[in-house]
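Hi,

Apologies if this is the wrong queue. I'm a grad student, and the batch job for Ring-cleaving dioxygenase from Salinirubrum litoreum produced an output file that my downstream script rejects. I'm not sure whether the problem is my script or the file. Here is the sequence I used:
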Amino acid sequence: MSDVTPTPGIHHVTCIAGDPQRNIDFWVETLGLRLVKRSINQDDPGTYHFFFADAEGTPGTSMTFFPWEDLPQGKVGTGQVSTTAFRVPEGSLDYWESRFDDYGVDYDDRVERFGETVLPFRDPDGLPVELVETEIPEDDPVVPWTEFVPSEYAIRGFHSVTLWIADPDPTEGLLETMGFERVGTEQAQSDTPGDRRTRFAASGPVGKYVDVLPTIEGGRQGHGTVHHVAFQTPTDDDQEAMRSAVRGQGLSPTNQIDRHWFRSVYFREHGGVLFELATSGPGYTSDEPLDELGGRLVLPGRFESQREQIEAQLPDVTIPHADPIEADD
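Support response: The file is valid. Your script probably expects a header line. Output copied below for reference.
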């Protein structure tokens, strides 16, 4: 492992949604994330791919969605990312509960986990999400987007993902190979399959935790489930070293695939969860100025010649914007 750079943590999480307008409205207006990229699924160009992140699309902040309207409702089960958690500043959960009441968001009572307070909720497609109160350091790399939610409450990138795994041991060994450190185990909450939750921590400040829960509960992919989780391998060399280490675990990673804003390698880990390794660059500002991110449909190079046909297949969507505050005379 000495030649493998430990992953700093999560790069992005990609999920399956239903109605694209409802998806945008919730993640931009209700949760206050910035739509930093409006594009297409590069493997299914008749479908949108939305990227919601902090103000600058910092690695470790982007929740992305394929709104496949024709898919059925999914069910979280073994071999999936069961829950995605975001960091919020300490003392902000009262604000979020009030906001969820105002917007009709389905949420549960707070729970304590590894010494942190967690607010579980679901997006309009039933996707399980959590807000976790954490101390945000002065030098935190996340730049909060504040059009809808004030900075003192705004989401600050990923906290963690939880994996539901039938046989956790091989997956836990893989996480250690990727540079995660086992930092604790505690009793799982009563409403969660499995009797213990084991936490692993990466080396970076954002999206650093992966929790593993043993369960054999069956699931199916569809609306309200996670498609894959991507981990940061900042450079091509980092990625290739990690790819070799993954192969050494008996897994079958793909060759590198150019995803336009990052370069990716994919594989299913031992428990069946689809993992991605993603480089830091070239990033979301490689094809749009920072102040214009998400403002138009961006098509990766090889699709630009098909723009007319692609746009004709996609439903119209509107990006929410906060009403400007009128200055007093």
